[in-house]
């Protein structure tokens, strides 16, 4: 029913001179090509991220080009709590999209190590992730970095560049489906995530090493 209504809206907008589209992916921003960064990411995951699966999930895989949601307990190596609660990552998308489409109720990760640690989990899985200081922050020279408490960056949580231990349960991995409409003169623009579609591929491959990036 929802799809039918959206198609009717698309046709109506097209008749009024708008360029309207329903698409999987965060158009008009493109997904960064995994092939161009895979070597670096897999090197970082191999050297600085250790994962132990406590329970293997059976759902969609946390992979490149997905919205990934998890419940996490993030602590320093001494056991002190950094954050405990929900987290969301748009993996492989341009950073500008965090503000545009992120669910304001969830915590956004700016931690490369957390994203690498979640990669390859299946929904329903539980994983213990150990992240070395080298990939705690996005930039090598950062001594501190942030976890954003909402889509507007209010009340950011400062994270020291130290080893982190993350207990994660993957709750969602899906491909955002975006409705967008742009007027011919470029003055009216609509962009709305209408749902997030579960995908069966890729699947967990037991033949690849744990530092593989899906």
Low-confidence stretches: 6-18
**SS class:** alpha+beta
The number of helical runs is: 4
Total number of β-strand segments? Answer: 10
Multimeric organization: single chain
| Shape type | globular
Which architecture of the domain at 34-176 per CATH?
Answer: Roll
- What name does CATH use for the topology of the domain at 34-176? Chitinase A, domain 3
CATH class of the domain at 34-176: Alpha Beta
Order of helices and strands: HEHEEEHEHEEEEE
Q: Could you report the average pLDDT, rounded to the nearest whole number?
A: 78
Helix coverage percent of residues?
10-25%
Strand content: 35-45%
Distance between the termini: 33 Å
Could you tell me the radius of gyration in angstroms?
18 Å
| Largest sheet composition | 10 strands, mixed
Overall description:
- With 214 residues, the chain is α+β, with helices and mostly antiparallel strands.
- The chain has a domain at 34-176: Roll (Chitinase A, domain 3).
- The protein is built from four helices and ten strands; from the N terminus they run αβαβββαβαβββββ.
- The chain has helices spanning 2-15, 34-48, 97-101, 112-118, and strands at residues 18-24, 49-55, 66-76, 81-91, 107-109, 126-131, 144-148, 157-160, 164-183, 189-197.
- Strands 1, 2, 3, 4, 5, 6, 7, 8, 9 and 10 form a ten-stranded mixed β-sheet that branches.
- The longest helix has 15 residues, at 34-48.
- The radius of gyration is 18 Å and the shape is globular.
């Amino acid at each position: 029913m929802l799809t039918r209504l959206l198609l009717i809206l698309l046709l109506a907008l097209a008749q009024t001179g708008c360029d309207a589209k329903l698409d999987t992916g965060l158009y008009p921003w493109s997904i960064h090509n995994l092939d161009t960064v895979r070597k670096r990411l897999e090197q970082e995951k191999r050297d600085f991220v250790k994962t132990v699966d406590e329970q293997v999930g059976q759902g969609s895989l946390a992979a490149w080009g997905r919205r990934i949601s998890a419940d996490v307990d993030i602590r320093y190596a001494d056991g002190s709590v950094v954050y405990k609660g929900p987290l969301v990552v748009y993996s492989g998308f341009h950073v500008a999209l965090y503000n545009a489409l992120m669910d304001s109720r969830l915590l956004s990760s700016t931690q490369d190590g957390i994203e690498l640690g979640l990669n390859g989990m299946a929904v329903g899985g539980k994983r213990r992730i150990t992240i070395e200081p080298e990939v705690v922050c996005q930039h090598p020279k950062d001594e501190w970095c942030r976890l954003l408490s909402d889509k507007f960056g209010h009340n950011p949580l400062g994270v020291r560049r130290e080893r982190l231990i993350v207990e994660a349960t993957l709750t969602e991995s899906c491909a955002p489906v975006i409705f967008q409409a742009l007027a011919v003169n470029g003055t009216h623009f609509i962009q709305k995530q209408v749902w997030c579609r579960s995908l069966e591929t890729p699947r967990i491959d037991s033949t690849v090493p744990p530092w593989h990036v899906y």
